[in-house]
Every structure is written in structure tokens, then in C-alpha cells.
Design goal:
Layout: E1 3-4, E2 7-9, E3 12-14, E4 21-25, E5 32-37, H1 41-58, H2 63-79, H3 81-92, H4 96-113, H5 116-119, E6 124-129, E7 132-140, E8 143-147, H6 155-166, E9 170-174, H7 181-192, E10 200-202, H8 207-215, E11 219-225, H9 228-240, E12 244-248, E13 253-257, H10 263-275, E14 285-291, H11 298-305, H12 326-341, E15 345-348, E16 367-370, H13 377-380, E17 387-393, H14 396-405, E18 408-409, E19 411-415, H15 419-428, E20 433-436, E21 452-453, E22 456-457, H16 464-470, E23 472-480
Helix pairs in contact: 2-4, 2-7, 3-4, 3-7, 4-6, 10-11
Keywords: NAD, Oxidoreductase
Protein name: methylmalonate-semialdehyde dehydrogenase (CoA acylating)
Organism: Vibrio variabilis
Length: 497
């Protein structure tokens, strides 16, 4: 029997009273594995009301106790790491190794949330004027909201609600309607960790439910990860309703290959960074920029990419899984066809990929293009599939100029043995996250995820210190006390409680 995905409202898992439901499918088979409700307006209002009520109690809980909840939570996440990865694999299609990485990167952010006290410290200056001191307090905002994508159903929710809640807020999560099951399990474990009733709520739906969240006056912040068009919409709509918004959008991440790089490292890293997770990650390398004679390595790259075969989540020989949906597959195939029609050389074509025993899966094989130019749609658009396009330039300056002309600025990398080339690249490139001999430069959570330009709408980024500032407000106090008010006398006692 197909399960119905519950809502999580006021500390209880409950069935929605909605008349509208969405099919949740297994991407490897397209079989329906669950039914997801589009939460009613009344259910969303109840979730926000519960979160608002809980906030007034939760913000008064000592920061050390909030940190202990996160310590217990990260322990439970580690204990159930493999089970979470299997659940995640079955609803996303990710191979188990990728799913484990998804869960682990989320756990790392929860560990950082357990360090919340040091990130909530204000500043003090004594005697800003005669007998006057000034100091700042870092305080939570209220009810925060997160809208998360299909491709990282553990990591990205864990980017959001643990830090927000550790900082003293409460949180309403709207996970992707395509992969809701992992979020429900995350909530179950959070409850087991001792999180009080109401600090986390989960509602489901699509654009209609998102619009309701964006317009509700009690929602103070909105965090979003997804496509460019939706990120832009979320940012403008949320800020129109006076909310603080961080909206992470698409990307076109370039890897620059210098002629002095280690060829084997380049080829190995390019293959994994481009087709890993079926290319469905905003930090995937989708453009290889070969400088000078390094273009001769494209043949080696083709040979290694051809060895990568997709398969089921529990197939240990599979390099990656299916695309998330039929619609996603159709879009990737369309872009591959456009690349051929526009004159790019398709060195490796995964359009007709099949997987034995799984004829209905959303499979696309590794695909490689050379001879690509910047006016082609396979360069201009984020393909979000296992497709790598290759461009050739004469110099490092040309490579930097090429990347800086691209509208996106999420991540980039350079492979070289030259410290001078690496330093010039990291200094001149207009991209927020830079790798040097590292293909996918996602920072660990004591830093922040710092996409630039068309890859991000907002001011303060995810996790790290910037996220704490995003989920809090600063209050500055100026105080003056007078010496002649100090009590004196023989019977004066001080009692400590």
C-alpha cells in the first residue's frame, strides 16, 4: 500500500485534510512510492501559529541547552547515518555512496550548530564616553522558513533548521515535493534528540503553499535553494513582504586545466565532478576550460567518462543514479540534441542509455562535448545532468575572462602546478567559491557557502558565521550608571542565588 506523507505540526505527525495530492516516484522505476499532500491554508496557518507560540518559550532557553540539543541530534544522525542514506537513495535514486555523502555533509552543519554559543557573542566597549559603556546583543528573530530542493534532501534542510533553531528561532520547513521522506525522518530524529514541541514544523506542497509562506506576516526569514527563475521569484516576493531572504540559484561551474597540471588528476577529478550524482548538484563541474596544449587530454577524458555507468542505488558497480524525473531527463536530452545541432562535437552521447532490469528509469549516460562555443545553449544553460562541455583557450587570462563573462558565480577551480597561476586565478576570478587542484570547492561549515552574482540572491549566505547573522538581529545597548547610586552601609549584604 502506498504511504501518505504526513505533516509535522505542533510536535505531531498528522495526516493532511487536503483534497490535492502529488505522486512521489522512484526515479529508477517511476513507480509511485508515496502520496504527498498539498497542505491546506489552515494547516499552514496552524504550523506557523505553533512555531510562533513555541518561539516565545524557546528563545528563553539557555544557549548552552540549545547547543546540547544539537549535540544529541548529531549523535542520533550519526547513529542512523546508513539508514538515512538508504531512505534518501530510494527516493532520489542516488547511489548509496552519494547518499552517504549527502547525509554526512548535513551532519557537519549540525556539529557547527552545537557551537552556537561562541557565534552568538556580541561586542563590548567600556567608557565610550565618561561612565558610559556600549555593548551589543545577538538575538533571534522569530519564525524562519526553509524551502529545499530535490537533489540534497538531507544536507540542505540541515543547512537551515539546525542553525536557525540553535540561534533561538523556530522553523517551518517545506521540503521538495519530489523527495519528502528524508525530511520526515530528520524530524523524527530531531524530536528524539529532545527538541521541544513546535520548534520545527514540516508542511508540503508546491508553488501555492510556497506563496502562502512567503506572504505570511509571522515568517521573518526565508531560505531557498533551487533554480535561477524560482530563486529570483522567491527573493523578490519574500522581500516584497519585508522578509530577510537568502536564495541560492543555479550555476555554470568551470574547471580550468593548465598545461602544467597532472593529467591523471585532471581526468579523474573531471569525471567525478561532472557526472557524479548524475550532474544534479549546483557545484557540479559542467564546463572544462582547456588552456593551450592541455586540450590534447580530451581524448583521455572521453575514455574515462565512457567507463562511468549509471545504475540502481544499491548497485555497487554504478557510478551514479538516474535523473530525478521524466521531465528532467527530457530537458537534458533536448539540450544534448541542441548541442549537436548547434555544431558542437558530441564525443560521448548518453542519450540512449539503458540499465538492465530497470527499463523505466530516468537514465542518461555520461555525455561529453568538445568544440563548444559560448553562444551555444549547452554552455549558456545549466544542464543539471551528466553532461560536460569542453572549451579551449590560449591563456590563463583568456580563461579568467571567459569565466567572468558568465552570469553565474557559484564555484570554479583550477588545476595547475604553478603557485603563480593559482594565485592570479583566485585573485582575479569573480566567483564565490574557488578550488585549487580541488574540483568541487564546497567549504566546510565553519566557513559559509558563498556563491556570487547570478548564483545567489541576498546578502548573507548559508551556514557558518554568515548564517548565524542571517538568523539573528543585533541590539546595541548604551548604559550609564552613577557612582553615587552605589549602596553603602554596615548591613549591606550580597546574596547569590
Amino acid at each position: 500500500m502506498t504511504q501518505s506523507v504526513p505533516l509535522y505540526i505542533d510536535g505531531k505527525f498528522c495526516q493532511s485534510q487536503s483534497n490535492e495530492w502529488i505522486d512521489v516516484t522512484n526515479p529508477a522505476t517511476n513507480a509511485v512510492i508515496a502520496k504527498l499532500p498539498k497542505a491546506t491554508d489552515a494547516e499552514i496557518a496552524r504550523a506557523i501559529e505553533s512555531a510562533s507560540h513555541a518561539f516565545h518559550q524557546w528563545k528563553e532557553v539557555a544557549v548552552s541547552e540549545r547547543a546540547r540539543v544539537m549535540l544529541r541530534y548529531q549523535h542520533l544522525l550519526k547513529e542512523h547515518h546508513d539508514d538515512l542514506a538508504e531512505l534518501l537513495s530510494q527516493e532520489t535514486g542516488k547511489i548509496l555512496l552519494d547518499a552517504k555523502g549527502d547525509v554526512w555533509r548535513g551532519i557537519e552543519v549540525v556539529e557547527q550548530a552545537a557551537n552556537i554559543a561562541s557565534n552568538m557573542m556580541g561586542e563590548t566597549v567600556e567608557n565610550v564616553a565618561t561612565d558610559i559603556d556600549s555593548y551589543s546583543l545577538i538575538q533571534p528573530l522569530g519564525v524562519c522558513c526553509g524551502i529545499t530542493p530535490f537533489n540534497f534532501p538531507a544536507m540542505i534542510p540541515l543547512w537551515m533548521f539546525p542553525l536557525a533553531i540553535a540561534a533561538g528561532n523556530t522553523f517551518v520547513l517545506k521540503p521538495s515535493e519530489q523527495v519528502p521522506l528524508t525530511s520526515i525522518r530528520l524530524a523524527e530524529l530531531f524530536e528524539q534528540a529532545g527538541a521541544p514541541k513546535g520548534v520545527l514544523q514540516i508542511v508540503h506542497g508546491d508553488k501555492q503553499q510556497v506563496d502562502t509562506l512567503l506572504a505570511h506576516p509571522d515568517i521573518r526569514t526565508v531560505s531557498f535553494v533551487g533554480s535561477v527563475s524560482v530563486a529570483e521569484y522567491i527573493y523578490h516576493t519574500g522581500t516584497l513582504h519585508n522578509k530577510r531572504v537568502q536564495a541560492f540559484a543555479g550555476a555554470k561551474n568551470h574547471m580550468v586545466i593548465m598545461p602544467d597540471a597532472n593529467k591523471n588528476q585532471v581526468v579523474s577529478n573531471l569525471v567525478g565532478a561532472s557526472v557524479g550524482a548524475a550532474g544534479q548538484r549546483c557545484m557540479a563541474i559542467s564546463v572544462a576550460v582547456f588552456v593551450g596544449e592541455s586540450k590534447q587530454w580530451i581524448a583521455d577524458l572521453k575514455d574515462e567518462m565512457a567507463k562511468m555507468k549509471p545504475g540502481a542505488w544499491d548497485d555497487e558497480s554504478a557510478a551514479y543514479g538516474p535523473l530525478i524525473s521524466k521531465t528532467a531527463k527530457e530537458r537534458v536530452i533536448r539540450l544534448i540534441d541542441e548541442g549537436k545541432a548547434q555544431g558542437a562535437l558530441c564525443e560521448l552521447d548518453g542519450s540512449d542509455c539503458t540499465v538492465s532490469g530497470l527499463p523505466n528509469g530516468n537514465w542518461v549516460g555520461p555525455t561529453l562535448f568538445s568544440g563548444v562555443t559560448t553562444d551555444m545553449s549547452i554552455y549558456q544553460q545549466e544542464i543539471f545532468g551528466p553532461v560536460l562541455v569542453c572549451l579551449e583557450v590560449d591563456s590563463l587570462d583568456d580563461a579568467i575572462a571567459l569565466i567572468n563573462r558568465n552570469p553565474y558565480g557559484n564555484g570554479t577551480s583550477i588545476f595547475t602546478s604553478s603557485g603563480g597561476a593559482a594565485r592570479k586565478f583566485q585573485h582575479d576570478i569573480q566567483v564565490g567559491q574557488v578550488g585549487i587542484n580541488v574540483p568541487i570547492p564546497v567549504p566546510l561549515p565553519f566557513f559559509s557557502f558563498t556563491g556570487w552574482r547570478g548564483s545567489f540572491y541576498g546578502d548573507l549566505h548559508a551556514y557558518g558565521k554568515q548564517a548565524v547573522r542571517f538568523f539573528t538581529e543585533t541590539k546595541t545597548v548604551t548604559a550609564r550608571w552613577f557612582d553615587h547610586d552605589i549602596p553603602t552601609g554596615p548591613n549591606l549584604t550580597i546574596q547569590l542565588k
